[in-house]
Structures are given as structure tokens and as C-alpha cells.
Amino acid sequence: MRAVSLECRQVARDAAEDGNNKDVGGGACGKILIMLSWALVIITMPFSLFVCFKVVQEYERAVIFRLGRLLSGGAKGPGIFFILPCIDSYARVDLRTRTYDVPPQEVLTKDSVTVSVDAVVYYRVNNATISIANVENAHHSTRLLAQTTLRNTMGMRPLHEILSERETISGNMQISLDEATDAWGIKVERVEIKDVRLPVQLQRAMAAEAEAAREARAKVIAAEGEQKASRALREASEVIGDSPAALQLRYLQTLNTISAEKNSTIVFPLPIDLVTYFLKASEARA
Length: 286
Fold this sequence. Notes:
Elements: H1 2-25, H2 28-43, H3 47-52, E1 53-56, E2 60-66, E3 69-70, E4 79-82, E5 88-94, E6 98-108, E7 114-125, H4 128-133, H5 138-155, H6 159-164, H7 166-181, E8 186-197, H8 200-242, H9 244-261, H10 272-285
């Protein structure tokens, strides 16, 4: 209810100001100046037409001031519009989207790490009249606010969030900037964080930490491989031990491998039966 009452009061105040503007603009002095301006246009025709008629492009709007006050009807354009000489002045407003490259900002993060952050802001004018009447330089003000918002947003987050949650931070910045610049007739369409540069000492520490983590993972993988290989060898030995024929075939395969790889070596194979005899004798003594 309080917000509604404040809005109603603001509307009433704006209506009263509009009424005052009309009274002042329609006073005796204002009417005389307007009549003199029309007389000048008529006397100097057709040359005055080159001064009175102006053209704005499709992406532009013209905000007209008559005797220092905004002309009713809002911004003009696109196309041709008419102004009175000597008493009318106008300002062109470009409605196209602009890109602002925020220079690198030195920011102290929440966990006391100094980083350098830069970003890109895409914005445009969505209300030409407000952007001229409510702020001296809407573009300059938006750029200064973008720098301040970037520093404040980064200063409230730890380093790991800045590095891993860029999209979330960009969205929060866009919402904050858009709310602040709405009173200036500016619409912030997008904010993108370009780069986060860390100190050299911190980069070295993070690189050493990442290398240590990779080495630890490699050792774990190697240990798991050896464990699986030992299990497979144990199962193979159990199978070979249960079958004398399998042991004989393995013996012959080993001899074949040795003769293929070591051609200069002479191998005198021991009969497998003799080996089996000794194995049985040892088992009987046990």
C-alpha cells in the first residue's frame, strides 16, 4: 500500500509539473516568441524550410526542447520532424545497442586474493526522453556504474566461485545494472566476464596443486591395475595347477617364446615329467 501511495503521489506531482509547464510555455512572453518565430519562418520561405525540417534515421530519435522545456508528444522520429527557429532545440539519441569494454579492475575477493577482472557490457537507450532529461550523460554514467558494479560483485565472492560461476555472476551483474539504469532510460541487455587474471605466485601454486593431484590419480590407477593383474595371475595359476596338461602347454609356450626372442641362447628344456616327479616327492615329504 505504501508503494502504491508513493506511486500515486509521484503521478500527481508529474501531472502538476506538466500543468505548470503548459502554463509557462503558454504565457504571454512564450506566445509572443512563438508568433515571432512563425513570422520569421513565413517571411524567409522557402529558405526557412531547410532550417525547420530535420530528418532522423530509423535507429534515432529526436528530443525537442521549446523555450527550454520538453515539447509535448515525446521524442520524434524516425523520419521528418519540424522545429521552429530560434526557440526550438533538439538532441539526437541513438537507440542502437552499444558495447562497453570494462577496463581491468583490481578486485580483492572475499577470501583476500587480489585478481584483475575485465568484462563487456551490452546496453542501449530504450527511452530517449528520459536519457536526455534525467541524466547529464547517460552513456558515461552507465560505464562508471558498470565498473563499480563489477568491483562490488567480485568483492563479495571467493576466488573459486569467480573462476567456476562466471555465468551466474554475469547474470547478477546484468540484473543489478539494469535496475540502476532504468531511471536513466538505459536497458542493459547482457554482461559477460572476459578474463580473470591471477597473481603469478598464485598461478604457480595452483599449477603445483593440479600437478600433484594428477600424479596422485596416476598412482591410484597404477595400483588398481597391479591389483587386477595379480588377481588374474592368481586365477591363472589355480587353473594351471588343477590341470597337468595345461601346465605342459604353458611350459612349451614359454620355451617357444624364449627361442623366438633369444636366438643366441641355447635352451636345454627339462622334461616336464621330471619336474612333476620332484613336485610330487616334495609334496609327499611335506
